[in-house]
Specification:
Length: 429
């Protein structure tokens, strides 16, 4: 069978760290197994905060990676507000509540549409137009956010008629992040107009969860499939060994709006009721943990000394901590429109066959996936009784040195299996 070529346009690529990079890094890792040769197009000088050099090891040998410079206005924002100014998924964080800061956020939301990477679109279209005239490419894939990446695919589709797949890792016009940017009505309408153009022009839409698919269908998507995120772990028996502590681990972004405050209360109660529990307990947090979350833990005297904030650690270190934990904590935003979210870490949790304490919406895609695989569903943020019962049961299993479950159904979420589904979509175009 002849090998076909797919051009993947992505902002996030190693050594960028965090969850945004891994979806297409892992697809690229396995695409050759299914007669597709990937070519990656990405910025040469992206402005991202998280670095993870370990992810470079997953890039296939002899892969063509085209890197072109990008200009981003976030550098100006950092000059105004200092090195502590941060951005996540292309959204400028509030470094202060000053008037100047609020003006900067308003400008970002209303002048850089759909996002601050918009200035990469025209030079990328010009460069790739020349590239496509001299290199045979069968399919183009764009992945967002940042959703400006889709505008590159939109223009190339118009110019060359080449098959185009638009991958939505997050919503666009209905993304709750936009609410932070003080958009006026004109800006909102601009987002919706661009989104409709992408959804109606692309030959194929991909997304990460059933609820997000339903939302995009309402917005005009026609040919759309769900390919979730997944895991890519090679495990052996030693990875299921008994942890040295009753360790509850979380690595990633934990903000005030995603703070499982009731969990800290429950752990404090159990520590006051069961002798020795606080000596066994360790609350291990890593990544970007907001100060409000730290304070909400430290206010409880029985668990204050069991907590550690470890900052950003590499993905390899994250997996090592997961293996040494008794409970893996999953926290999904406590908002009305978060039912679509399937965090990438959830699939790695499932592969490790560790107990998962998921705090979110009990009626959500994440809850459905967990139940289907044989895990406990999500606990609502106010389900104190459920959280406490789960922790007590898991602690008893820990003390009795009971191992992980073998009957869990997680194999279909291996990244190679998911890439097989991707290749099938590409073959049908």
């Amino acid at each position: 069978m002849a090998v076909k070529k797919v051009l993947i346009i992505t902002y996030y690529w190693p050594p960028s760290g965090g969850g945004g990079v891994q979806r297409w890094l892992k697809f690229v890792k396995f695409l050759r197994d299914f007669n597709w040769e990937p070519v990656v197009y990405t910025p040469s000088n992206p402005d991202f905060e998280l670095h993870d050099d370990d992810l470079l090891e997953d890039i296939p040998q002899n892969l063509t990676v085209i890197k072109r410079p990008i200009w981003e206005p976030f550098g100006l924002y950092r000059m105004l507000f200092g090195k502590k100014a941060v951005q996540k998924q292309g959204v400028v964080g509030k470094s202060s509540n000053s008037f100047l800061s609020q003006i900067a956020i308003w400008v970002r939301g209303n002048y850089f549409i759909p996002d601050s990477r918009i200035f990469w679109v025209r030079p990328s279209v010009n460069y790739l137009s020349k590239y496509l005239k001299t290199h045979e490419i069968d399919v183009i894939i764009t992945t967002g956010p940042p959703h400006s990446i889709h505008l590159i695919g939109l223009e190339l589709k118009k110019r060359f008629g080449i098959k185009w797949v638009a991958d939505f890792r997050d919503p666009w016009s209905k993304w709750d992040v936009l609410d932070q940017l003080k958009l006026n009505d004109r800006s909102r309408n601009s987002h919706r107009k661009l989104e409709r153009m992408v959804l109606s022009t692309a030959d194929q839409i991909l997304t990460v969860s059933p609820s997000l698919k339903a939302s995009l269908v309402e917005l005009g998507a026609k040919r759309i499939d769900v390919i979730t995120n997944g895991y890519d772990l090679d495990l052996d028996e030693s990875d299921h060994s008994q942890p040295d502590k009753f360790r509850i681990a979380y690595a990633g972004l934990l903000t005030r709006g995603r703070n499982p405050g009731l969990l800290w209360q429950v752990l404090n109660e159990i520590a006051s009721e069961i002798p020795g529990f606080s000596n066994d307990l360790e609350i291990y947090l890593a990544g970007t943990i907001e100060e409000d979350v730290i304070k909400s833990i430290e206010m409880y005297p029985e668990i204050r000394k069991t907590f550690s904030n470890n900052g950003y650690i590499s993905h390899t270190e994250v997996i090592d901590i997961y293996k040494k934990s008794a409970i893996l904590l999953l926290v999904i935003s406590n908002t009305d429109n978060a039912s679509w979210i399937l965090p990438g870490k959830m699939f790695e949790y499932m592969a490790l066959r560790k107990p998962i304490l998921s705090v979110g919406n009990a009626k959500s895609d994440a809850s459905d996936v967990l139940k289907e695989a044989g895990y406990n569903p999500c606990f609502d943020y106010d389900d104190k009784q459920g959280m406490k019962a789960f922790i007590l049961f898991t602690y008893e299993s820990y003390k009795n040195k009971e191992g992980s479950k073998d009957e869990l159904k997680v194999e279909k979420y291996h990244r190679r299996e998911l890439t097989k589904s991707l290749a099938a979509c590409l073959d049908q175009l």
